[in-house]
Design goal:
disordered C terminus; mainly alpha
Amino acid sequence: MAGTGSAAQTTHGTNGSHHPFRTGWTAFAAVLMIFGGAMAIFQGVSAIAKDDVFVATRNYVFQFNLTGWGWIHLILGIVIVIAGCALFTGAFWARVVGVLLAGLGALANFAWLPHYPLWSLVLIAIDVFIIWALCTGGDSRART
């Protein structure tokens, strides 16, 4: 009887390690990271390719030309998409990197507010939700 119980626990532990996600929030955060990263890539490409699409404001604290902001968003978007794909592995380091990159994405979009306010607010909301999902969607076995 004692051997059977330990075998069941071992099997449960083995099955838990094969599942890439501890909760559905991690999967949802991964999908949102890929989506948000793709939107940042589009944001960057449009700023690089055609600067006159966006409103240029004067006397703003974060004064880069739009091409510079475009490169920042393009590179950050590519890295966020890669990190979102890494979240599908369920690795802890991917969660930490995801939180850091979502924070950087929110800051970059905050600085982008004068150029495209609605787009920036939507991406900031997505980044904040990603941070929340990755910080609260931990191991469900640790809570029981």
